[in-house]
Structure to design on (145 residues):
């Protein structure tokens, strides 16, 4: 799932669950639930992957700035926690696999679980990402207005 959608889910949680001791673990768990839903992903050529990441980063940056402006630090933090499990993939890809130059290493522990739950991650599932953006943006907008 895109970082933008994980972040929007986290922000939604922060707006419903105001208690940080509950909201932050829920945000982390939401990542795993969201990754179990149909979403975009899979083996892509490096150039395509780079373009998807840049597009996602631009949208995420915009969403992050708007979240900071309208909802503040707690919502940004909750969004970050909801997105954070994927930082491990970035770390592995950049530092262990040298930007795709080396083959992926076997996944262990949490990474193994994180990979196994993504049974509905396919390239053809890209429209789901737009559906999630619309649903959670409308949800946030509804709570704000
Ligand atoms: Zn993930």
């Amino acid at each position: 799932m895109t970082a933008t959608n994980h972040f929007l889910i986290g922000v939604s949680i922060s707006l419903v669950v105001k208690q940080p001791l509950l909201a932050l673990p829920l945000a982390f768990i939401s990542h795993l639930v969201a990754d179990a839903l149909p979403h975009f992903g899979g083996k892509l050529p490096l150039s395509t992957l780079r373009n998807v990441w840049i597009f996602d980063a631009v949208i995420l940056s915009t969403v992050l700035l708007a979240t900071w402006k309208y909802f503040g630090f707690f919502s940004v933090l909750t969004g970050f926690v909801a997105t954070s499990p994927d930082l491990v993939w970035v770390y592995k890809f950049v530092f262990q696999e040298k930007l795709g130059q080396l083959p992926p290493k076997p996944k262990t522990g949490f990474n193994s679980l994180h990979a196994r739950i993504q049974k509905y991650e396919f390239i053809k599932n890209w429209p789901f990402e737009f559906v999630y953006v619309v649903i959670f943006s409308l949800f946030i907008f509804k709570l704000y207005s």
User: Anything to note?
Assistant: The radius of gyration is 15 Å.
